[in-house]
Amino acid sequence: MTLNIRNPLSYLFTAVLAACLVLGISQNAQAHKGHAGSTVTFTKTKAALKAMLPTEARITKRKQPLSKKAVAWAEKTYGVKLDDDLYSYYLATDKQSKAIVAAAYVGETSYRHGNLKFSVGIDADNRITQVAVLGINEKYVVDFDSNIGTGLIADYAGLSLNVLITKANALASSDKATREFATAVRDAAVLLAAFIHSNQ
Question: What global pTM score does this model have?
Fold first, then answer.
């Protein structure tokens, strides 16, 4: 009787090959990330939040999941599909009445081979109080500096959510920085509106 070792060896070879490919892809992705350079900070988070939230309000940082009910509300009301994940955001409430007066979100999203850090604020009427490009990898500073701006972006302040969504849709064929920033701002603003709606 002879043992058939061909199959076990082929399985081992396949497993090793797969591991090498995964490792190679992971290292390649990391190498690309490194090519983007270090993050350049334009505005500190604290300064951005100060511009987005009323100073006389009570500011609390919350971490909570977005319920499936809130996800459904956001899609029905604004046509934006959100994930029912756990999110951190800032909520501003009136010190006397405890009513919600504003909210802000600080997020990070992939941009090319780097990361874009941004923030968005809205008031209780679902109008943008302010948005900001907080930071981007040094290789892509030129993309934002020449197309959107850096730090606080005045073009968005005062927009209603419906106007913001129309703006984001209109920018879908713009340069990569403009359209991806507009989409990130839109999604964050709708996320905040969903949290405000679910906390009322």
Answer: 0.82
